[in-house]
Description:
The complex is a heterodimer.
Chain A: H1 18-46, E1 47-52, H2 53-59, E2 68-74, E3 87-93, E4 98-104, E5 116-123, E6 129-136
Parallel strand pairs in A: 1-2, 4-6
Antiparallel strand pairs in A: 2-3, 2-5, 3-4, 5-6
Chain B: H1 2-28, H2 32-61, H3 68-71, H4 80-85, H5 91-113, H6 121-142, H7 171-181, H8 183-195, H9 200-232, H10 242-267, H11 271-294, H12 308-330, H13 346-378, E1 381-384, H14 386-406, H15 417-442, H16 445-476, H17 480-490, H18 492-516, E2 519-525, E3 530-533, E4 536-548, E5 563-574, E6 577-589, E7 597-599, E8 601-605, E9 608-617, E10 623-631, H19 633-651, H20 656-667
Antiparallel strand pairs in B: 2-10, 3-4, 4-5, 5-6, 6-7, 8-9, 9-10
Amino acid sequence: MDADSTPLKITPVRRRNPWLNVKLLVAAGVVVAAVGFLVVNAMGSSLAYFHTVSELEESGRGLDGELVRVGGDVLAGSIQREALSSELRFTLTDGQGTLPVVYSGVIPDIFSEEVEVVAEGTIGPDGTLVANKLLTKCPSRFEADRPSG
Amino acid sequence: MAHLGHGALLVAFALSLFGIALNVIGEKRRIPELSIAGVRAVIGVTVLLFVAAVVLMIAFITHDFSFAYVSSRSSTDMPMRYVVTAFYGGQEGSLLLWTIAAGVLGSIAFARNRPRFPRLVPYAAATFLALQAFMLYMLCFVATPFLLNPVAPSEGRGLNPLLRDPGMLIHPPMLLAGYSSFAIPFSIAVAALLTGRMTTEWLRFVRRWALVSWAILGTGIFLGGWWAYHVLGWGGYWGWDPVENVSLLPWLLATAFIHSIIVQERRGMLKVWNIGLLLASYVLAIFGTFIVRSGMLQSVHSFAISEIGPYFLGFLIAIIALSVGLIAYRLPAMQAESTFDSMLSRESGFLLNNLIFAGIAFATFWGTVYPLISEAVRGTTMTVGPPFYNQVNGPLFLALLILMGIGPLLAWRQSPLRPLLRILRGPLAIATVTVFVVLLLFGQPMAAAGFAGAVFAISAVAIEYWRGAQLRQKNAGDSFAVAVFRLLRREPRRYGGYIVHLGVAVIAIGIVASTFFQSERQVVLNPGESIEIAGYTLTMNRLTETERFEGQTGSLARATPSARVITAHIDVSTNGSSQGSMQAKRFFYRGFEQQPTTQVAVNTVGFDDVYVMLVDWNDAGAAQLHVFVNPMVTWIWAGGAVYLLGMVAIFWPAPQARRVAVTAPARGRQAGEATT
């Protein structure tokens, strides 16, 4: 027998505290406000602009050291990487502009030429994106982009 | 063969439309035969879906590359288990699986409950068939798995290597089944709103099926974490990726629902809120599918932009409009039967629980769609990363843990403060000690709070079991073990639910430990060299290159390797004593040479996972390794097992006859949960 599932037979209580609803609303409001505060607070610290390469050039963003995320394709022949070095250099392109990127960290399995990637980091003084994160779009999940055959 | 499969889908589509008519006319004209036939239509559609699935499965097993879907996902050199999983390795197959999973669950739900709810089930079945009809339309006309290649290629392309993992056998079907199963509580809710039959029995019916969906989806999410940890190689199990987030959203709302529905059952309150949660769970399940498949968000999982996006958007808008419209229509009938009596009561505890779950869902939703909102409002795309979710949801989950420690101990209507504080003395003392111990040992206030919250929640479970068992020991003279067993049999939802609470608290301990105390190093090691990390010594033994043969026996492909494998052999020791050897591997599959896949080496020593990923190597045998020591991740898997155990307890069928005999005289209640 499930106690929770059985409706209690309660004689209606009419002597209600009129302040109770107000108090409940205030309590609920406090919870909602807390959630709102957490959201606003966290937005400030983890927001990043997302641009394509040419958008970044036009907007001139990222020059003051703010965090940017840039999406584009890896330019064919641009990957420079010495064996066992964790530093990776390549050029991002969106067909119009190009952006040199330097990245150190784990290189995703799928990273290779002409693959669409997102690099996150800051623009260095020489105009290179110093990325601390490199995301690849999973090829497909697997819907392959290559022509079928 | 393809024609048989496609034909079965076309007939299923027609039958689902016909079934809608049967159900609606049968109910309107009060012709029971028609509504019985209407439920059979649900079953018939499911059978036809199975026919289509069997055709597709046979095509996979026999390597029939005349099917475009088969040739683009399978190949003869894959082991049979991956040939089978390739079935849902793409959009069309996963839609088919989605529809079948919903069909099976819907058939069970409506066939079993039609005799009990003769007026309600016809509308629920009609709603359900309409949802199935949409999916079938997609399968027949937009994303059909039965397209033929103009010329059948001699060899298929093979499954994406990332999916060649045992976790893929079970994680996607569970997740898809979880998503799709929300169609059932949604249909039951829509039927209740249409007919106005929102009785106590209906509540049990809908709650039961919401619980089923919640359990399946939760398991699917959990298995996804397991897969990510063991395959993706970034040392974690959850990355707040948009696709992960959207799978969490319906689960969060369903979790809120299965709590707050208890308030409606006991006190007849929160009716609009509850039905809203239920409808929103399904809307979010569809939203998740839409987001994943439309290519609108940047994600590791991004599907190629597909044709089905606009259809899903339309479907999404339709079900939102239906939900909002129906709730507005029935608003007058959903008056609360009672009101809050006190600030401190079980009801208010559940209300707080719901607000926090809704808060987590909102924050997660907001972060996930923020790129779209900022694009629309400000013209620039802005994204938020994992720190956002950790900063917002971390404290909210902590609040839930604390509430888990208090809520079950609160009395209905009015819970006097003094007895509550008396019973909380023990848990509070334990939590306080935990805080100080963790602070002294590690100096991490956030981790201390997390551990203390989990311990606090576990103590409430212990108290509830102890109190219940004490009572039984006194009244029935049972031993403690027998008493606990009887509690679980008598009130499976309550005491099974506490086991789920226990599982969640154990998971929380694992998450806190592995989040705050993870060690990470990226190193280059020559053979014979070693590094120290978190007390472990890892010595590079040697690097090997081998070939892997995994085609099916008897096939030609058996003779050619399907992958080249690079393996780094690493010895692990602590304080000079060996803890075994690890093999971190990279696979280069035939046809996917540009996309090597990782096999992470995980060696569990005590509570720590030594986790090694092979990043790069050279001809001299030197290897670049990414090494993590992840403490207590095993607790997450163990907590998941406890969660499943709680599920088993909740769904374990009750011996009906005996239950009536035992329980009926006790308090004169109605016998057992009638609905399944």
